[in-house]
Design goal:
The protein has about 400 residues and is an alpha/beta fold. The chain has helices at about 5-25, 75-85, 100, 110-120, 140-145, 150-165, 205-210, 215-225, 240-255, 280-290, 315-335, 355-360, 380-390, and strands spanning about 55-60, 90, 125-135, 175-180, 230-235, 265, 270, 295-305, 340-345. An eight-stranded parallel beta barrel has the order 1-2-3-4-5-6-8-9, surrounded by five helices. Bound molecules: (3S,4R)-3-hydroxy-2-oxopiperidin-4-yl beta-D-xylopyranoside (XIL).
Length: about 400
Amino acid sequence: MPVLDTDLVTKLFRKSLIVMSLSLAACGGSSGVDQGGDEPIREPMVESLKAQTDMPLGVAVPAAYYDYFSNDILQRPDLQDVVVQHFSQITAENIMKSSYLQPAQGVFEWQWADQLVQWALDNKLTVHGHALVWHSQMPTWMEQFDGDAGQWQAMLDDHVSNVASHFNGKVVSWDVVNEALSDCASANDSYCGDSAATYPYRNSVLYQNLGADFIAAAFRAAHQADSSVPLYYNDYNISANGLKMDALITMVEGLLADSVPIDGIGFQMHVDYNWPDITSIRSAFRRAAATGLLVKITELDLKMNPNGQNSRFTAAMAEQQLERYQQIVTAYLEEVPSEQQGGVSFWGVSDADSWIPHHTGHEDWPLLFDQDLKQKPAIEGVEQALITAQ
Ligand code: XIL
């Protein structure tokens, strides 16, 4: 049983008051509209985040592919400096997904990912591999693959074994299967749409061709190609949707009962400044840890403008973001025993590169560094959480 730390409780209580008052300030009461505050946003001077923890502290970085992705980290020394200074691990934001690694059947394009991985290794950064099997960012030939279940499975196994073998010795962990679960609350949920028949799984091209068997098969193929690194199942909204978490736990327990080589659960954690509530987040971490598997935050970012209600990022919002980052990282460090902590990774370095505005359709400021790669107050929230846990 953890001992109750009264100092910590007092501190948390004080912090929750600050969060409440900041929420009101930032939201203008209940309207959620930015009502000003002209004071400048302060710029912290955190020396190095990674120096405050032994667990992997990661970040997703963009790399180029032919003439795509003009924000390629390999062309940006300023971005490289920030990554090396503060993080111990990278995830390729896109370049290791199937559409880039195998754009035509049997044609593997390694050079782009290889350059990125080499840069990481040269700079003493580890690499978390992302992602072997995912229904999205799949090459068209794979999506439209014409074959029976046996042929489909052989085609997927071939992708997984080629990729996991190629990076054997170079990556330290893999997201093996990404987003295989449905977001429905039940098979009868109206939100379920065409996923009703496949509940609790996502009605993806993978499920349509293979049922849920593709999940176990992917882990087996990955393990065969690289048995030395932890293999993760990765998904989103599992800290918000208790029913999705139920489905995840049932799935994981089934895989373990069948001796499938799964080692960890990845929480994407694309969350908002006020959603999900911290109780749900803590409960989800606790439940994942109770499986005995590793638990990793794989893609943390924090929307400050989820509904497009804010036209700019104010000093009050910056402090609110600090508190929320601190709250989430603290929850992870407290709920997941240290020997099960796979680490925390952020989905991008600077607000300028974040996928969130493209995803939500409006401006946002979800990350630890601003458009000019300057530190935002948020970075202090993460640093404080790491220091407190030491
Ligand atoms: C996103 C990238 O950040 C974008 O650049 C790309 O256009 C789409 O994919 N869950 C995942 C990530 O597992 O791979 C996604 O990354 C974000 C959601």
